[in-house]
Amino acid sequence: MATIRLSSGHQMPQVGFGLWKVPNDVCAEVVYNAIKTGYRLLDGACDYGNEVECGQGVARAIKEGIVKREELFIVSKLWNSFHDGDRVEPIVKKQLADWGVDYFDLYLIHFPVATEYVDPSVRYPPGWFYEGDEIRPSKATIQETWTAMESLVEKGLSKSIGVSNFQAQLLYDLLRYAKIRPATLQVEHHPYLVQQELLNLAKKEGIAVTAYSTFGPASFKEFNMAHATELTQLTDDETIKAIAAKYNKQPSQVLLRWATQRGLAIIPKSTSPARMKENIESSNFDLSEEDIATISSFDRGLRFNQPTNYFPSEMLWIFG
């Protein structure tokens, strides 16, 4: 499998397996099957609420000799309510214990949003709200959080660190004071949201980019977002289907290849072993430059994973 060399010196698989919305009751089996299929990058997070089960799937695969720990690239993320500097290391140690591993290969700041601490013994994962429907901000700065993230590398708790859902201005600010530069940037990226200027900046600064929600609105239909339910699903689009037919591939494979051929890493998710195999095999062909340009022309600057799409407007003062 192709890998991407990170600024930290480590190699990251270009095609990984995303763990967002994998149900707890099947998660261990799904992770085990993903590893059997050939996935070596597993992309998890505190907020997904399934890290214990992810660890169970990893432990089973290791026990059966399918893989060794050092052959896996395990990713997790820091949730908003643990941004205060003294909260970072304790929650990372809890997450490592949930996974049953000694270190993460990559640990990310999940969102550039700091909210008030919620004790894991009270509620875990904490979610966006302090209690009820109240969002309480923390005064932690990104610099404070990043300094604590850097200590994770120094203490061997994570080999690389990075950020997620950051835009250009925040990256520029972070790079001013970072002693350890972010190895990766994980962002929503699909033909409806190409973000080419952000990708150009990341490339210039040596930051690898991981794309999530490569299939666009498909991941967000369940949240009843009007622009997710009313849009044509990318895998059903006639242009995408025609391109797929030309290469004798599935539309989903074309969308994934559009991302990887442009140098991005991807983390598609499926609970179906057959679909897992299709996704991991999406890099075994090349799209023409004309087809890449055609898919990129779908760009509408349309973002799904943002607070304004989830919460009533009166709750959004915290996000500016």
From TrEMBL:
Protein name, per record: NAD(P)H-dependent D-xylose reductase-like protein
Family (UniProt): Belongs to the aldo/keto reductase family.
Keyword Transcription regulation: no
Pathway: Carbohydrate metabolism; D-xylose degradation
Bilayer-crossing regions: none
Active site: Y48 (proton donor)
UniProt site positions, description: Lowers pKa of active site Tyr: K77
Binding site for substrate: H110
Domain NADP-dependent oxidoreductase: 16-299
Keyword tags: Carbohydrate metabolism, NAD, NADP, Oxidoreductase, Xylose metabolism
Molecular functions (GO terms): D-xylose reductase (NADPH) activity
GO biological process, one term: D-xylose catabolic process
